[in-house]
Amino acid sequence: MIGPRTDDICYATTNRQAAVRQLARQCELVLVVGSRNSSNSNRLVEVAREHGAESHLIDNEGHVRDEWLTGKRVVGITSGASAPEELVKRLVEFFRARGTSDVREVEVVQEDVRFMLPKAIRPAVAGTA
């Protein structure tokens, strides 16, 4: 079987893992929004645990268990690369509804990757500008 190199993961996945490494050092609990069949999301849970935080993979805010929150003062939230942003926003609102007032967005890596159009279509697109 031939597949991509094991070190050939997309920049978004690499950036999320780097962010979770830093996040886990500051949190007691990291919740990862993503699908159970997503290797990316599962890896984020592993990275958080490897860096000192309890971590759980959840589909949405309805899967948060009260026992995970007992005694926790700082909770980190992240998501797999393919998880819709709306699910993260709903999880943040879940915590706000429970009385959390200190919610901060942490940007570890600024994603500014630009992809070039194939050479064959660049002239056609340039002519329409």
Describe the structure in your own words.
It is a single chain. By secondary structure, the chain is α/β, with parallel strands linked by helices. The protein has one domain: Cobalt-precorrin-4 Transmethylase, domain 1. It is built from five helices and three strands, in the order H-E-H-E-H-E-H-H. It has helices at 11-26, 39-50, 66-69, 85-97, 122-128; strands spanning 29-33, 54-58, 75-79. Strands 2-1-3 form a three-stranded parallel sheet. Helix 1 (11-26) packs parallel to helix 2 (39-50). It starts with 10 loop residues before the first helix and ends with a helix.
**Treating each run of at least 4 consecutive H or I residues as one helix, how many helices?**
5
Uncertain runs with pLDDT below 50, 5 residues or more?
1-8
Which fold does the CATH topology refer to? Cobalt-precorrin-4 Transmethylase, domain 1
Query: What is the name of the CATH class?
Result: Alpha Beta
Question: Using only CA atoms, what is the Rg?
Answer: 18 Å
What structural category characterises the helix and strand content?
alpha/beta
Please state roughly what percent of the residues sit in beta strands, choosing from under 5%, 5-15%, 15-25%, 25-35%, 35-45% or over 45%.
Answer: 5-15%
Measured as a percent range, the helix fraction is 40-55%
Mean pLDDT: 85
Please give the domain count. Answer: 1
Distance between the termini: 44 Å
Strand order of the largest sheet: 2-1-3
- Indicate the multimeric state: single chain
CATH superfamily: 4-hydroxy-3-methylbut-2-enyl diphosphate reductase, catalytic domain
CATH architecture term: 3-Layer(aba) Sandwich
* Structure summary, number of beta strands: 3
Shape: elongated
Helix-strand sequence: HEHEHEHH
